[in-house]
Specification:
The protein is an alpha/beta fold and 515 residues long. The chain folds into three domains: 133 residues, 3-Layer(aba) Sandwich (Rossmann fold); 161 residues, 3-Layer(aba) Sandwich (Rossmann fold), CATH 3.40.50.12780; 95 residues, GMP Synthetase, Chain A, domain 3, CATH 3.30.300. The chain is 30% helix and 27% strand. The chain is built from 17 helices and 27 strands. It has a five-stranded parallel β-sheet. A five-stranded mixed β-sheet has the order 12-13-14-15-16. The mean pLDDT is 93.
Length: 515
Amino acid sequence: MPLNELLPKAVRLHPRREAVVCGRLRMDYAAFAARVWRLCGALRRMGLAKGDRLAVLHENCHVFLESYFAAAHLGLILVPLNFRLSPGELGFILQDSGARALIAQGRFHAHIQDLPALAPGIEQLIWTQRSFERSAANEADYEDLLAAEPPDPPPPLALEDRDIAHLYYTSGTTGRPKGVMLTHGNVKSHALGTIAELHITDRDHWFHVAPLFHLADAWATFAITWAGGKHVILPVFDALRVLETIERERITLTNLIPTMLNLMVNEPRVGAFDYSSLRYMLSGGAPIAPETVRRIMETLHCDYVQTYGMTETSPYLTLSLLKGRLRSLPPEEQLRFKAKTGREFIDVRLRVVDDAGLDVAADETRVGEIIVQGDTVTPGYWNLPDETAEAIRDGWLYTGDLAVIDEEGYVTIVDRKKDMIITGGENVYSTEVENVLYRHEDILEAAVVGVPDPKWGEAVKAFVVPKPGRSVRPEEIIAFCRKHLASYKCPKGVELLESLPRTGSGKIYKKGLRS
């Protein structure tokens, strides 16, 4: 079943079932679909056709869900944008993807006012929640466009599994973002896998708290709709609002990052709400300690599932769901497995291999790289054949993550081959930050690593050697980075050194900086 049949199926089976709750707006599937059809009509009237790229810059909102489904029905390639990126970073992505149209939330108007110069390929700018006057002929109001269209489904469109559905941009190790191509087949396979693994049904209420521009949450757009469940949307994370909404909307499952969960369980009023509707609390995007897992289960009174995945894999590669025989283990043993990275996802084949490509022993001691294959794995990177060939070899995607594996098939990530830092669920590559630091006129050498942080899981830390005769303060360096990078990529701390530690071969010894 192609992606453009999921919403019509939900309308046939559950027309009056509540589908979307977004602030004060509540829609059943029939009403939600009507808005999607109107958006399809508006986009078609603009001349957008199969294969064209449509970008979205928005907080969590029903608009994001409508954009995902409208793109799927027209065969457009959706480009979700991280609103935390700088204007220059956004401009690069829009240019690289060749996006023809952008749906943007009014609150980002000042942030992206220079986009016409940075991304001249954008032919149409569609504003939501606009509180300002339009300044160009190619600007339109989202609600006005929908109001001018009939609520009729678009003409049938033949879609194949290999057709590209989404382009998600990830930070490149050289600072150049890479567009991860996900096909209709990738998205469909992952949706079915999550329905099977998590036993998702029309009784489920999914909570969109993690950003919809990120696959940690976006996958649920299709899986929940396929099952006929309810989407409950929160624009931005707020611990108290999340807890209140879980009770009010009878949330059954969601996927959050450890930083969010830590703030929730430490919220002073956490004990004031009813969490009896919760089936699963999923977490991913950063390491999590077993003690935190224990607190989540005891506080929220639900089962916990650790997840691990990549943008390149739609995203899930593993879940820490317990196999049947492990559920009879004592609670402490069960907790040990729940806190692991997890066992392979239902439609993924996962191996942990050494440098020779041989499987490491399943003894939780031998370390190897995780490699995977399956229907959820990307065909490659947008217009980057060399990077694609480097990542996917002999049909296997090499993740760059180092792990051990136990005799039950559960893996635990112990390190990353590349110097990627996961801070608050966002990926930051040290090379990208270092490249900015080296642009500072007073800096001679720089190295960036991730250090443990109780709030963010990891924090970005820079070690800097000033040029001879120059002086620079840590606050100045952080401010300099903020001019060129998204805030979450900027160092939280800077340490000034006379020299950086090096290995025998002369390379910077980052392990020594972390210790």
